[in-house]
């Protein structure tokens, strides 16, 4: 369907982040190329944005983010492989040098979607390398590289066309975990968990001849240390132009490893042009 309508399209998104009422922006450029059974997509984030740490601002970095994804479409099954270089939204705080560190990490993974009537089963697996992690060495927390694996399983139910309900479970584990690994909260350092579990609920629907799309998402960690709510609206103006907007808010236990995301907010305004 996509191939018949248009062979490629480019998206230019201007994101405005609000972290505790402090404004900043980032630029993201992405593109997609459609073929009969294969879709290639890529993105470049030339100005990554980070969560501010009170008293330290944001880390200064000349690194950028980029990624590539290939998706094959078969009868009832989609198979994707992807790779990217990313920077964590919450930078690692180097207590020894009193500085924020935002080094890039690498990610590779795959995903499989299986359609059964009006139900879609989704499985995603990813491997991360060189993720910055605080570790105590001689009573001093220093930043070390860590390796992680993440997996997610989801069920998507569509009772009618364009309306979807999604339930997903997400797990993360540190491969080279050490009991001396710590995380930084507002009250000091705390032991890093080796395994993290999260759950997600999502709802989406379309209105006004499918021109207006609504997406709602709620995310929580297994122990209640993290919560996130987001909503997105997009309007298809015509065959070429689409406008969209999104809001997101997060809260976290200030004594947990999610403390840097507490009070984080996001406002996004985007314009898509398809040719």
List the helices and strands and how they pair.
Elements lengths: L1 H4 L2 E12 L2 E13 L3 E8 L19 E10 L2 E10 L5 E3 L4 E3 L3 E12 L2 E19 L2 E21 L2 E12 L6 E5 L2 E4 L3 E13 L4 E10 L4 E11 L4 E12 L11 E11 L1
Antiparallel strand pairs: 1-2, 1-18, 2-3, 3-4, 4-5, 5-8, 6-7, 8-9, 9-10, 9-12, 10-11, 11-14, 12-13, 14-15, 15-16, 16-17, 17-18
Write a compact overview of the structure shown.
The protein is mostly beta strands. The protein has one helix and 18 strands.
Could you walk me through the main structural features you see in this protein, from its secondary elements to its overall organization?
With 275 residues, the chain is mostly beta strands. The protein is built from 1 helix and 18 strands. The protein has a 14-stranded antiparallel β-barrel with strand order 1-2-3-4-5-8-9-10-11-14-15-16-17-18. It has a two-stranded antiparallel ribbon with strand order 6-7. The longest helix is centred in the first third of the chain and has 4 residues, at 2-5.
Total strands: 18
**Separation of termini?**
15 Å
- Summarize the amount of helix as a percent range: under 10%
Strand order of the largest sheet: 1-2-3-4-5-8-9-10-11-14-15-16-17-18
Biggest pleated-sheet summary: 14 strands, antiparallel, barrel
What is the N-to-C order of secondary-structure elements (H for helix, E for strand)? HEEEEEEEEEEEEEEEEEE
Query: What would you call the structural class?
Result: mainly beta
Mean pLDDT: 82
Low-pLDDT stretches: 1-24
Which geometry do the CA atoms define?
globular
């Amino acid at each position: 369907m996509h191939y018949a309508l248009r062979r490629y399209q480019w998206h230019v998104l201007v994101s405005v982040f609000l972290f505790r009422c402090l404004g900043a922006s980032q630029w993201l450029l992405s593109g997609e190329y459609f073929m009969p059974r294969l879709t290639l997509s890529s993105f470049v984030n030339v100005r990554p944005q980070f969560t501010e740490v009170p008293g330290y601002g944001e880390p200064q970095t000349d690194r950028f983010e980029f990624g590539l994804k290939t998706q094959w479409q078969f009868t009832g099954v989609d198979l994707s492989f992807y790779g990217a270089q990313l920077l964590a939204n919450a930078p690692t705080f180097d207590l020894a040098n009193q500085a924020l560190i935002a080094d890039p990490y690498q990610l590779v993974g795959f995903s499989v979607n299986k359609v059964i009537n009006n139900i879609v089963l989704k499985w995603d697996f990813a491997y991360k390398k060189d993720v910055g992690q605080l570790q105590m060495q001689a009573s001093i927390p220093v930043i070390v590289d860590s390796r992680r694996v993440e997996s997610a399983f989801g069920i998507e139910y569509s009772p009618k066309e364009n309306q979807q309900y999604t339930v997903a479970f997400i797990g993360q584990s540190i491969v080279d975990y050490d009991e001396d690994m710590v995380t930084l909260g507002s009250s000091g350092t705390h032991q890093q968990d080796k395994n993290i579990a999260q759950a997600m609920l999502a709802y989406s629907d379309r209105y006004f001849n499918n021109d207006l799309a609504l997406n709602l998402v709620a995310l929580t960690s297994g122990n209640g240390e993290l919560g996130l709510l987001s909503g997105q609206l997009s309007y298809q103006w015509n065959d070429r132009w689409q406008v969209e907007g999104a809001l997101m808010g997060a809260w976290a236990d200030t004594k947990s490893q999610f403390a840097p995301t507490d009070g984080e907010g996001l406002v996004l305004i985007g314009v898509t042009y398809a040719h």
